[in-house]
Amino acid sequence: MAAKILVADDDRSIRTVIGRALGRLGHHVRSTSRARDLWNWVSNGEGDLVITDAVMPDENGLDLVLRIKKVRPNLPIIVMSAKTTFLTAIEANQRGAYEYLPKPFDLNELINVVERAISIPQLKTNENDAPLVEAEENLTLIGRSPAMQEVYRVV
Amino acid sequence: MTSALGRSDQDTQIGTKALLETLPVAVIVVNKALQIRMVNAAAEQLLGLSAGFLMRQNLNDMVHEDAALISLIHQVFRQGQSIAEYGLSLAGPKISPQRIDVQITPILEDDSHLVISLQECSMARQMDRQLAQGRAARSVAGLAAVLAHEIKNPLSGIRGAAQLLEQSASDQDRELTQLICMESDRIRNLVDRMELFSDERPLQRGPVNIHDVLGHVRKLAMTGFAKDIVFQEHYDPSLPSVFGNRDQLIQVFLNLVKNSSEATRLSQGEIVLETSYKHSVLISVAGSRDRLQLPIVVAVRDNGSGIPEELTQSIFEPFVTTKTRGTGLGLSLVAKIVEDHGGIIELVSEPGQTVFSVFLPAHPRSHGEVLVDDLER
């Protein structure tokens, strides 16, 4: 199923990579470096899926997620971030993001997430359903480094 | 000497002088006018001046006017009671600045003289070193926050572009695109680790049962990286709660145990976790009148190959490692967290025995003592 995907990231190389990768799969990709453009497109009813950076020059991507969810609760949003903290992941999910991807992401993983997101006909209607919240407990600092995650997983 | 034994009295006096000379503690005797009346060899060494010179001097001219040492001496003359002070800074026209522990004691039968004993202040030195390590970690922290963002974004582009090329590459070229991905992941791992330092949220502290923490760490270690290591636990069951952050303390001891387990790889690994209570350790914080009590001592001891002496000074700095595959961030993270707790970490290492000792503050309520007393003497 070809979808219209809106991408917001202030890094051009990321926009290029995502545009090419999803374009090859037949999707139509529209991308911007500014949160403002994304907001305009979304509020005009454009797009089947949003992929946004958590940090953009003109607005915090996570605040934008909250605003988008208010006007279009069923629009799936994938949040990417170069800050690999559990808090960002948890926050993104609490605000209703469909998925969180730490940068640098694996392209195949991104594609999988995108395909999953657009194949769900009616995204979960309950926005407060935050799937990652349970990870918050006890994982504050220890889960942050990959080595520690490895350690944590063995328990 | 008030010994009733006439002849051995003589012997004792000779013995006393010889004894004084061999003492590792610097001893100086002054009179009320602060003229130096006696010094031993350790005092010559500590001050870097000869006894012949010192004996002609007045202590007032030797140290800077505002020196705390002088006012302490006057206080002892006035009150007739001995005073100890830790981490005092000593400097003068002919004395190079240094930190010392001082004990000033009146002489019972002679109230016109008193004894000053001086010792190089090892605790204060560690404190300074510790603070410097904290600063280094923090500068890395600031850098890491910027780096994390600035490196991971282009890395996403590089990695993604390589994966796009891979889709149409020949088998031979696919090896190269995979190489780009693998090397990108290596850089990401390094940046992830550095990012740990950019966490500058204020420390959330409360009472923490340190034995609980150590038990958790041991469990984590034994199910993971330290499967073949023999653990011993020597705990003081009466220990009060540490004033700290549980998660971060887990991180500290997990890193220390991980470090120890890697150091014991070649031998039959043994790690001893030990806790004890040290009542009297008062530490003056540089640049402040506060005296901090760090009574809880947690030691992680291993029987590994030890840390080369030339590295023991710098081992807590970022990127210093004895491991061929290490990133050298584990111990500097330990130093940062311990410093955030107001604690101290000390290292003693020789082949076959390495001990990291962490000194931590007790939780005020679990303790009944004032931990920070800022009363002026």
Provide tags for this entry.
heterodimer; A: 155 residues; five-stranded parallel β-sheet; 6 helices; disordered C terminus; B: 377 residues; five-stranded antiparallel β-sheet; five-stranded mixed β-sheet; 11 helices; disordered N terminus
Please, could you describe this protein's structure?
- The complex is a heterodimer of chains A (155) and B (377).
- Chain A is of the alpha/beta class.
- Helix content of chain A is 41%, strand content 15%.
- Chain A has six helices and five strands, in the order βαβαβαβαβαα.
- Chain A has a five-stranded parallel β-sheet, sandwiched between helices.
- The termini of chain A are far apart.
- By secondary structure, chain B is of the alpha+beta class.
- In chain B, the strands form four sheets. In chain B, strands 2-1-5-4-3 form a five-stranded antiparallel β-sheet, with helices on both faces. Chain B has a five-stranded mixed β-sheet with strand order 7-9-12-14-13. Chain B has a three-stranded antiparallel β-sheet with strand order 10-11-15.
- Chain B starts with 5 loop residues before the first helix and ends with a strand.
- The model of chain B is unreliable at 1-8 and 367-377 (pLDDT under 50).
- Chains A and B meet through helix 1 and helix 6 of A and helix 6, helix 7, helix 8 and helix 9 of B.
**Percent strand of chain B:** 15-25%
Q: Write down the oligomeric state.
A: heterodimer
- Kindly state the mean pLDDT of chain A as a whole number? 78
Amino- and carboxy-terminal Cα gap of chain B: 32 Å
Q: Return the average pLDDT of chain B rounded to an integer.
A: 79
Count of runs of 4 or more consecutive helical residues of chain A: 6
Beta-strand percentage range of chain A: 15-25%
SS element count, helices of chain B: 11
Radius of gyration of CA atoms of chain A, rounded to a whole number? 15 Å
Q: How would a textbook summarize the main sheet of chain A?
A: 5 strands, parallel
Cα gyration radius of chain B (Å): 27 Å
How many beta-strand elements of chain B? 15
Give a short account of the largest sheet of chain B: 5 strands, antiparallel
Termini separation of chain A comes to 41 Å
User: Helix fraction of chain B?
Assistant: 40-55%
Q: What order do the strands of the largest sheet of chain A run in, or round the barrel if closed?
A: 2-1-3-4-5
Q: How many beta-strand runs of chain A? A: 5
Helix-strand makeup class of chain B: alpha+beta
Outline of chain B:
elongated
